[in-house]
Amino acid sequence: MKDLHPVFTKFKEEYPEIYEKHAALGAAVHAEGGPLEEKTRWLIKVAISGASGHERALQTHIAKAREAGVSEAELVHALMLMIPSLGFPAFMEAYSTMKGIS
After folding, report:
1. Both ends of the chain: CA-CA distance in Å?
2. Residue-wise pLDDT tens for the chain (102 aa)?
3. Could you give the C-alpha distances from 73 to 23, 40, 69, 70, 78, in angstroms and in order?
4. For residue 66, what are the CA distances in angstroms to 2, 33, 69, 73, 88?
5. pTM higher than the cut 0.90
6. Most buried in the list 20, 34, 73, 76, measured by CB within 10 Å?
């Protein structure tokens, strides 16, 4: 997948060894961390990054979820699950990121 954020590309160029270790850990946790199916893992990552307010991570996780076959309805549902615990404003921030609306 192409980098979505220029700052990430810059980090990879300036610190390739650290990036490689970070990427390897992420890949191991994602693929070997347990029995969850691919789509489920990406939906969880979408919800976590949305709930934590990390917009860049959310954009990346949404793109990767779509590549894994997650539907728009599934993405919205994952984000809507934030409402009871975090509130409607937190959901709307994540939803606006998903829709590409500022």
Report:
1. 24
2. 788 789 989 999 999 999 999 999 999 998 999 999 999 999 999 999 999 999 999 999 999 999 999 999 999 999 999 999 999 999 999 999 999 986
3. 29, 14, 11, 8, 9
4. 14, 21, 5, 11, 24
5. no
6. 76
